[in-house]
Structures are given as C-alpha cells and as structure tokens.
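in:
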C-alpha cells in the first residue's frame, strides 16, 4: 500500500498524531480500480490512469482509456485478417518445385520489385543460387501468399513481417491456427477485463466526488 501510494496509484493517506497512515473506503476503491485496470490495460497504463486521476487530469484519463480500446480494436481486426489469410492459405496447392522471382511474381500478380521490397522488410528469405539468383521454395511461397493477402487488406510491411515470423516460429499454418485461437481467447479476456475496470473506475471516481449538500425543507434558511 505504501508503495502504491508513493507511486501515485492511491491518493495520499492522512496520518494519525503518531504517524500511522489512515486508509479509508476511498483508498479501498482506488486499490480495486487499479487492480482491475492492470489486466485490462497493463500495469504501466494502469499507473498512468491512476496518476492522471490524482493530478486532476480527467481528460488524460479518458484519452488513455480511449487509446487502449483503440489498440484492442486494432488487435481484433489484425487477428481476424490473419485468421482469414491462414484459412485461405490452406486452399492453395502446395508448391513442390522452387520458383524464381519472376515465376513467383507471376503467380501472385505482382512485380519482382514488390517481392524484393518484401525481402528487404524481412517477409521473405529466399535462398540464393551460386549465380546470385533468388530461389523461392515452398515455405517462401507460403509466406509470399500470406503477405499478398495481408497487403491487400492494407497492413503495413512491418506488421506483415511479424505475422510471417510467427508462422515460421510456429512451424506452419496448422500450429499457427492454435496460436490464433489462444490469441482470440486472450483478447476476449482483455475485453471483459476492460468492462470490469470501467465499472471499478467509475466506483472510485464516484467515491472521490464531494457529497452534494443536503436539501433544506421549504422555507428553512441557513
């Protein structure tokens, strides 16, 4: 509790004459809000939100939360696009013979310059013949097909390179399918955590709000 208070995650506590901290229901509400924010937005962002509350920057609180929801939406859209792309890849006939850059470009309907750009971005890693010519094998064609699908969906090369690297690490699209299922499960859990965090945060903001003055009976003066 002392560390949380020192970090600004909790409001300052009053002290007794002997120096002991006095924590109230407001502090308990703050602690519940902070703990709920962690699985929703991460520890660092949760701390930023609590610090913004205690500095009186409610606009910063809402902006940080909005950005968290925006990132969550982008992650869901990326997951859906990758899932569709992986599903589509399973319908392609496997390529048994190595392909040249011109043959692969013709297969995809792109230019060789596009494939060279994908190679520079780390999406493709073709072998080289002794003469220096690129040779695209089955795994390279798979990666190029995936890149082509995601590129048509508007995804930048850097993000596509990360997705392709995940497939290489997973060992193929079958294993990646299981990883995507786990990714969707985690995104669903995060979305539910965001709902729970919103409720806890609203409780804390309400607990911090000054009590409204009680109404006086008609005709009574102060």
């Amino acid at each position: 509790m002392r560390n949380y208070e020192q970090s600004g995650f909790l409001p300052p506590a009053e002290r007794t004459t002997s120096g002991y901290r006095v924590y109230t229901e407001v502090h308990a509400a703050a602690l519940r809000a902070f703990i709920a924010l962690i699985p929703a937005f991460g520890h660092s962002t949760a701390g930023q939100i609590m610090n913004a509350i205690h500095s009186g920057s409610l606009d910063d609180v809402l902006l940080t939360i909005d950005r968290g929801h925006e990132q969550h939406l982008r992650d869901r859209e990326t997951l859906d696009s990758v899932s569709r792309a992986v599903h589509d890849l399973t319908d392609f006939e496997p390529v048994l013979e190595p392909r040249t850059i011109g043959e692969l470009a013709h297969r995809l309907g792109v230019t060789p310059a596009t494939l060279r750009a994908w190679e520079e971005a780390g999406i493709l890693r073709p072998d080289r013949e002794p003469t220096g010519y690129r040779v695209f094998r089955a795994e390279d064609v798979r990666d190029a097909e995936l890149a082509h699908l995601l590129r048509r969906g508007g995804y930048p090369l850097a993000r596509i390179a990360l997705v392709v690297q995940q497939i290489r690490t997973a060992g193929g699209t079958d294993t990646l399918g299981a990883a995507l299922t786990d990714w969707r499960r985690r995104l669903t859990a995060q979305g539910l955590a965001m709902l729970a965090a919103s409720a806890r945060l609203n409780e804390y903001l309400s607990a911090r709000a000054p009590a409204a003055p009680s109404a006086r009976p008609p005709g009574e003066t102060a």
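note: The chain has two domains: 2-73+190-208, 75-182.
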